[in-house]
Amino acid sequence: MELLSGDKVVRSYAMALGANPVGHKGREGDERTPEGRYVLDWRNPGSGYYRSIHISYPNADDVAAAKRAGVVAGGMIMIHGQPNGYGWWSWLMQMFDWTNGCIAVTDEDMAEIWHMVEDGTPIEINP
After folding, report:
1. How do residues 97-127 score in pLDDT, each as one tens digit?
2. Which CATH class is domain 14-125?
C-alpha cells in the first residue's frame, strides 16, 4: 500500500487483503477487498483490531451490481492493524491474505497511517 501526496509516494506499507483476494468485492462474505475509488470516511479507535479507518464501500455502483446479482454487497471494509492483543503476531499474519475483505497492516504501520491520513482522504484500490 502506498500513501501519496500529489503524485509523490510518501510511504509504502506491506499489507494483507481478503482471504480470496483476486477480483472486485461483489457480495458480503466473499472475502474479497473492493477495487476502485473510494473515500476513507471515518475512523474507529475502539475497533476489534488495532485502530481502523473505514473505506466507503459499497458505493452506489456496488449496491446496484449486488442487487442485480441478487446478493448483499457487504460493508464495514476497513484499513486496520492486527487483532487486538495479537500485534506481536504481525510478522506471521502479514505473510498471507487473511481478512474478510479489509486491508491489514502492522500495528506500527497503522499508528503511522492513523496520524498521517485525514477523514475524507480518497483511496484507490487497484488489482
Report:
1. 989 999 999 999 999 999 999 999 999 998 7
2. mainly beta
